[in-house]
Amino acid sequence: MDYKVAMTFQTVQNQIPPDTIDLGLGDPNSSLFPLDVLRRAAEDRFKQGDASFLQYGVEQGDGYFRLALAHFLGRNYSWPVVANTIFVMAGVSSALDLLCTLFTQAGDTIFVEEPT
């Protein structure tokens, strides 16, 4: 393929025409990213000298985040929340897939409040 022709194609999946609102990706506009805050957070974490946070980690999600979330939920919603009972997913699609895999079988009927 000619290089000049190839340059007319979009090479990044989240590039959509400016007059289009794409609800399929679920990605915020990149101009909304707090790059300075993310940069400082990354620098602070890398300064600790422990690269283990770059690994996938436990299936339930990051332990520090689950502890903070349990504390927040317990404080703000007035019921005890234990971090080990929280399971953090990377997105709704993977969460729905996991729930359906664990709790349903082929042919089951599932009722939802509204189509999602």
Task: Characterize the structure shown.
The chain is an all-alpha fold. The chain has one domain. Helices cover 38% and strands 0% of the residues. The chain is built from four helices and no strands. The longest helix has 15 residues. The protein is extended. The model has no long low-confidence stretch (mean pLDDT 80).
Question: What's the SSE blueprint?
Answer:
Layout (H helix, E strand, L loop, with lengths): L2 H4 L28 H13 L15 H15 L14 H12 L13
Give the helix level as a range of percent: 25-40%
Distance from first to last alpha carbon: 41 Å
Strand residue content: under 5%
Low-pLDDT residue spans: none
Oligomer: single chain
Q: Any idea what the shape is?
A: extended
Q: What are the secondary-structure elements, in order, as H or E?
A: HHHH
Q: What count of domains describes the coordinates? A: 1
Count of DSSP E strands?
Answer: 0
Q: Supply the number of helical segments.
A: 4
**Overall residue-averaged pLDDT value:** 80
Sketch the major β-sheet: none
**Class by alpha and beta content:** mainly alpha
Radius of gyration: 20 Å
